[in-house]
């Protein structure tokens, strides 16, 4: 298994490339800008990108999707709960003072519990509404367990819920009922900022409270 994560775009979204080392089949999670940097990483690892997986449809997680799809032919995947946000990416950008291109159509909407195969590895889809209605996390298990948490769970923090479709109650429930049921050793790669792990967040995240 290959995992390569790095910040991209004006808001430094964590973009992650995940791949099966044996087959080279890959997915890119949240290509949120700097598409040339993402494409160069794909070429460096000699990968065939099958999917662009989006944890949600805020513009800073989607800015590079059009260019990366055009370069790789990968399918754009999203939860249907964020269709309205995706369809209004240009308006989102205007609200925050950024120029955003009209996006390409979503190739397929994905739902909670689906498994996405990349060669000999699989990532599981976890629906975690709260930051947005269609927020997703992606769970990857191989020699180590990794959760790509988007803007649902951060190191000692949670995603904001004051934007359209956000719900504080939902995000707390998503974290408590879905994410904190994962193994304590699970590494968490959030949508922004440094990595963390489930064990630390269960005990030290001030927004969710100690569930040790």
Q: Please, could you describe this protein's structure?
A:
The chain has 212 residues and is an alpha/beta fold. It has a single domain, classed as Ribonuclease Z/Hydroxyacylglutathione hydrolase-like (Metallo-beta-lactamase, Chain A). The chain contains 6 helices and 14 strands.
Q: How are the elements arranged and paired?
A:
Blueprint lengths: L1 E7 L4 E7 L5 E5 L5 H10 L3 E6 L11 H8 L2 E4 L4 H5 L1 H8 L11 E2 L5 E4 L2 E7 L8 E6 L3 E6 L2 E2 L2 E2 L9 H10 L9 E4 L5 E2 H7 L8
Parallel strand pairs: 3-4, 4-5, 5-6, 10-13
Antiparallel strand pairs: 1-2, 2-3, 7-8, 8-9, 9-10, 11-12, 13-14
Helix pairs in contact: 1-2
- The total number of structural domains is 1
Distance between the termini: 30 Å
Calculate the mean pLDDT score and round it. 96
Do you know the CATH topology?
Metallo-beta-lactamase, Chain A
Class from helix and strand fractions: alpha/beta
Contiguous runs where pLDDT drops below 50 for at least 5 residues: none
Helix count equals: 6
Using the 3D structure, state the CATH architecture: 4-Layer Sandwich
Keywords:
212 residues; alpha/beta; Metallo-beta-lactamase, Chain A; six-stranded mixed β-sheet; 30% strand
